[in-house]
Amino acid sequence: IQIESENAAEANARLQQLQEDPDVQKIIYNFSSYMQVNDIETMVYTADFSLYENQNIIYKGRFPKYDNEIAIGASLAEKLNKAVGDDLSISINGNTQQYLITGLSQGSNYFGREMYMTPKGYLHLFPDYQFKTLAVYLDAYADRDEFIKYLETTTNDQKITITNHYGIIEASLG
What we know:
The chain is an alpha+beta fold. It has helices spanning 8-19, 74-80, 119-125, 144-153, 165-173; strands at 2-4, 24-37, 40-47, 58-61, 69-73, 87-92, 95-105, 114-117, 133-138, 161-163.
């Protein structure tokens, strides 16, 4: 379940609240955004990837651990003529950062043109960004619908967006 708060303070408060919930297995700050790299539109994902369930997304190398590291999609690597161990320079609004490519992903997100970086690595490019999106992993026996109802009733007039990714997958599969 993904929860997007209106601002970072509300996300932090929600994080503190949910860490006490026995139905919550773990919570990961995450974020995704479009980004141009060498005139190629990409999708960048930020998170503490050591907490990801599926480490097999990276088929060569590993997810980034440090703020100067990045993993990229195989299609993007091919377009940029890059491999694991190469440097990738990214410029945003005159701010240029160098990242070491630590892994290649086999994901089909954004047609293989995805990038993965740590939150601190993302902040090098966008220093004013405040993370406000939480990925909440529930215990296997938790009732997702009840949990979402609970979230909706405890917002305290905060504006949040709740996405039930399992619900989307179930609806897609029929």
